[in-house]
Amino acid sequence: LSLRQDVIAGFLYAILILVVFHPVVDLIDNFNLTYKYAPLIIITFEMSAVEKVEEQLASLRIAKRSVPSEEPAYLLDIDLSKPAQSENSRFVAVSCSSKSIRVFNRETLHFLREYSSHPGILSGVRFAHGCDSVVFSACSDGTVKCWDVRSAMQKPVQTFSGYPSNVFISFDINSSDLIVCAGTEKVDQDTFLVFWDARGITDCASAAKEPLGVYSESHNDDITKICFHPTEPNLVVSGSTDGLVNVFDINKDNEDDALTSTCNSDSSVSFIGWSGKDYKQVYCLTHDEGFCWWDMAQLDTEEPITLLHVLDVRDSVCAENHSLQYLVGGLYHEKAEKLFLIGGTSTGNIHLISCGSDGLSLVGTLCGGHSATVRSFCWNLADESLLTGGEDAQLLLWKPGAVERSLTKKASLKVASSVQKRVRVHNSSLKSRKK
Q1: 234 in a structural domain
Q2: Where would I find the beta strands (DSSP E) of 154-254?
Q3: Which of 105, 252, 389, 414 could cross-link 258 (Cys pair, CB 3.0–4.6 Å)?
Q4: Which residues cross the membrane (predicted)?
Q5: pLDDT tens, 329-374?
Q6: What does the alpha-carbon distance between residue 435 and residue 210 come to, in Å, rounded to a whole number?
Q7: Residue 245 sits in a domain of what CATH number?
Q8: How many domains does the chain have?
Q9: Is residue 248 part of a domain?
Q10: Residue-wise over 116-139: b if at least 16 C-beta within 10 A, else e?
Q11: Cα–Cα distance for residue pair 333/379, rounded to 1 Å
């Protein structure tokens, strides 16, 4: 009798397990979540999304290499044309240390054309958001030029001229393609953020456009980086060798009102960007390989706005046999809602670093691509691919799990170039003027 009772009890227990947990499994499989199980399942989903993205980044492999140019040069900045409707982006633009812009096919990396009529050093390339054939470049001669990459003509479709003393070393265009902004080197104690109206860029190139106005009081040294908000065209952040990272609302009537926040990196700023849900966070990298990360959503609260401040990322990220020697920039992955940094070594290895409020961690290292320092990159969220350019004059396309089919061998020697990273002594005594 006792044995029979045990068997019956065990049978009833098994039925109970099936009855209780089987519907839960069905609910999970069908994403028909009830309030009872939703918190646990949502947390699990968020963790797996981040882990999946980190696995994809770590699995990046070389899919394509550009054919070496007859005149090798450092590849200083990269941008992808914005896709029209549901189409993929068609073009890649690269600014080079040879004072030229090179345009490639986005999928094949086949060279299309080159614009070399620049009298000075280039400080970047940016495609328009609403037209995938229009690309902008800023030059140290005090101009921002607009090019139509469908045309091989060496004449820009529009030129934006600055003031006589302006030497532009940074620039960006806002998400609505209405405003262009460029940052200057310090000349005679003056540094400027210069703004232009970018409307009608393809109408007439006969006359250079004059500036709408300038901001001149918020920085006191070279303005090294400018970055408009990805979705709010009135917001722009600027970084300088004075250590300050300023956020402006350009809809305001004057510079003082426009300056919504000032954060101090305590070092010379080399890179800035937006991150977080709805892009309410700002981060920066410094020329001495530091990292600062702030939450602008906390400006009007009692909570601290600093999410993380790392004085030297090289000391906090363990890269085993491939030491981290420098930082290139950052990318915010919208799907995973995760910020990543990109760094590397002088031999061309690329480190992918995950950012969290609790610190930084190495996701993976991309080897076998570049043979010298990586200077530039561009992330394409549409297909999870990465474009990189370096001092070896190579433009590489990386995709998750790709197999390189090209027979082109990577360059074995570093390309000579007169362009070197400029670092100025900053005033570390400056303090944040606003929270």
Answers
A1: yes
A2: 158-161, 168-173, 179-184, 193-197, 213-215, 223-228, 235-240, 244-249
A3: 252
A4: 7-25
A5: 999 999 899 999 999 999 999 999 999 999 999 999 999 999 999 9
A6: 35
A7: 2.130.10.10
A8: 1
A9: yes
A10: eebeebbbbbbbbbeebbbbbbbb
A11: 9
Beta strands at 101-105 and 359-366: parallel, antiparallel or unpaired: unpaired
172: phi then psi, degrees, rounded to nearest 5: -165, 165
Amino acid at 247: V
Task: Tell which residue, 112, 184, 165, 119, has the closest CA to residue 145.
Answer: 119
Give the sign of the dihedral formed by CA 225, CA 231, CA 233, CA 237.
Answer: negative
**Which residues is 143 bridged to in the sheet?**
139, 161
DSSP class of residue 208 equals: P
318 within domain boundaries: no
Provide the whole-model pTM: 0.82
* pLDDT tens, position by position, 172-229: 999 999 999 999 999 998 999 999 999 876 554 556 899 999 999 999 999 999 999 9
The strand order across the sheet containing 122-127 reads 122-127, 134-139, 143-148, 158-161
Number of Cβ within a 10 Å radius of residue 14: 10
| Any domain includes 401 | no
Task: Write out 275-287 in H/E/C secondary structure.
Answer: ECHHHCEEEEEEC
121: containing domain: 72-264
* Residue 276 contacts residue 251 (beta carbons within 8 Å): no
